């Protein structure tokens, strides 16, 4: 197979297969570093704060939140959409980039998919807690019941139930099927009886038989083909939660593509935030190289620009439609009492990612990390702006009001951040953070040694 | 099949060459264990194209019909509910759930079929010939007929060595 001599290697440092296995799997066997302990302690404290807030909400009810008659959706829905959006990058990397045969995805897909799963868990928590009565959560599923009632299939909130649960289930299966061969490798390297037994169970009896591999590749490809439209559908449906309503500022047809690109935008920012720390902490700089960071930054420019165009289009259409209420909603966003949130959103999402047009910035680890944090913040504010500014000026001026979160709402949000980082830190301890078998598969065509010798 | 011989290569290109030579000599290759999918092996071993894609398609179709049919039955037959004056048989609003169920059925049926056809699953025991077959060795398992005399077995082992394989061991 011809490979361009100009293209830089995906994996640096003249690796052979054994070194790849050792490099990626050895951090799992050793003791965690003190930074890991520090990280999990912080995350655990955040989680405890969340547990307290959950207790308050369940015990005393939604009245603990800062919501009111006018603004019925606040931080809860903001956080929900933010977390789901973050999840989308993982599926984008593992499914859409697989279909486009982007080999660089092999170094980051495993941890990005893990991030997806954890982010969707965090997201799912918010609608559940917003119900107030967690015990009645099963009411959202259509099951034959004594009330003889079904759920409302005309409601986008119900579509969300199906979209999010399917998304979680399919992502889990996709991730685990990809993980099985690597768990087999972990099992075969295990030195203690307990580790061997645990990973032996988890690896489902994987041997690496050619027949299994052939089917494994088919399954991965078809799952990618299914996950690609699925991920697009999920955020489309999330945007329907807003777009099918009649609230000025929500009722726009641009929402589905705008939400999907925003989701991938924020997801890639979170992948970068996590990967930049992980590659440093686990010494994986030769696997997650500057080229990987640069590629992700390019996706950030693209999706960030789409989001920017969407903001401007919304504004233009609001004026061009000639609808007084629509125009007011957008004017109020930019210059009303929540203008500060709007301009944080505009700065973080539209201006900062444009810095990535400079190659120097795109390839700077420190600047990428900082900008990725900006994007995370900006995308959170985007959802806050959409949810709160559209609601706080109601149809009747007598119900105009303001909204600010209570400590309980802050606690719930911080709690999900704690859950996210706790689970991610546990993930990097017990599972291979990079898809070992997939990296080996691209080593020949894209490794450094082969590039030098002209092999492959 | 009681006896078999295992041998390994350290490079997938040598493995593919070796498999060609073994086949030319009429050796019967039972299995090849590799740390990652090696392209060209399926052809070398005359493997059938996987039929898992059909499972995915059929299951997806069932999911679509069930998903759409269930909603349509509920809203037109079982319990028609007037929601803001919308039509009972509201095709567009049944689409999202029907689509999600298509994906769900397809993905799960295919993965279950994958596990069943490979006899993989929680608690399934792996027969490990060489612990490095999931690391950096490309293992070939060759069948040895019970009726074969020792010298014929020697012949097979010689043929394997000629094909460039290392670590040739007879196992029962």
Structure description:
- The complex is a heterodimer of chains A (456) and B (172).
- Chain A has one domain (17-142, 151-453): Formate dehydrogenase/DMSO reductase fold (Up-down Bundle).
- Chain A is built from 16 helices and no strands.
- Chain A has helices spanning 17-29, 34-60, 75-99, 109-130, 156-189, 193-202, 210-243, 255-281, 290-320, 324-335, 339-351, 359-362, 365-392, 407-430, 436-446, 448-453.
- The radius of gyration of chain A is 23 Å and the shape is globular.
- Chain B is an alpha+beta fold.
- Chain B has two domains: 3-35 and 136-171, Alpha-Beta Plaits, CATH 3.30.70.120; 52-118, no CATH class.
- In chain B, helix 3 (52-78) runs antiparallel to helix 4 (91-118).
- The relative contact order of chain B is 0.28.
- The model of chain B has no long low-confidence stretch (mean pLDDT 86).
Question: Topology of this structure?
Answer:
The complex is a heterodimer of chains A (456) and B (172).
Chain A: H1 17-29, H2 34-60, H3 75-99, H4 109-130, H5 156-189, H6 193-202, H7 210-243, H8 255-281, H9 290-320, H10 324-335, H11 339-351, H12 359-362, H13 365-392, H14 407-430, H15 436-446, H16 448-453
Helix pairs in contact in A: 1-15, 2-14, 3-4, 3-7, 3-8, 3-13, 4-5, 4-14, 5-6, 5-7, 7-8, 8-9, 8-13, 9-10, 10-11, 11-13
Chain B: E1 3-9, H1 12-24, E2 29-33, H2 41-44, H3 52-78, H4 91-118, E3 138-144, H5 150-162, E4 166-171
Antiparallel strand pairs in B: 1-3, 1-4, 2-3
Radius of gyration of chain B: 26 Å
Shape type of chain B: rod-shaped
Q: What's the architecture of chain A, going by CATH?
A: Up-down Bundle
Give the distance, in angstroms, between the N- and C-terminal Cα atoms of chain A: 6 Å
Q: What percent strand of chain B?
A: 5-15%
Class from helix and strand fractions of chain A: mainly alpha
Contiguous uncertain segments of 5+ residues of chain A: 451-456
Distance between the termini of chain B: 9 Å
- Specify which chain pair forms the largest interface: A-B, 64 and 64 residues
What is the count of structural domains of chain B? 2
Count of individual domains of chain A: 1
Order of helices and strands of chain A: HHHHHHHHHHHHHHHH
CATH class of chain A: Mainly Alpha
Instruction: List the helices and strands of chain B in order.
Output: EHEHHHEHE
Based on Cα principal axes, name the global outline of chain A.
Answer: globular
Mean pLDDT of chain A: 88
Organism (chain B): Sunxiuqinia dokdonensis
Keywords (chain B): Membrane, Transmembrane, Transmembrane helix
Protein name (chain B): Quinol:cytochrome C oxidoreductase
Pfam families (chain B): ActD (PF11821)
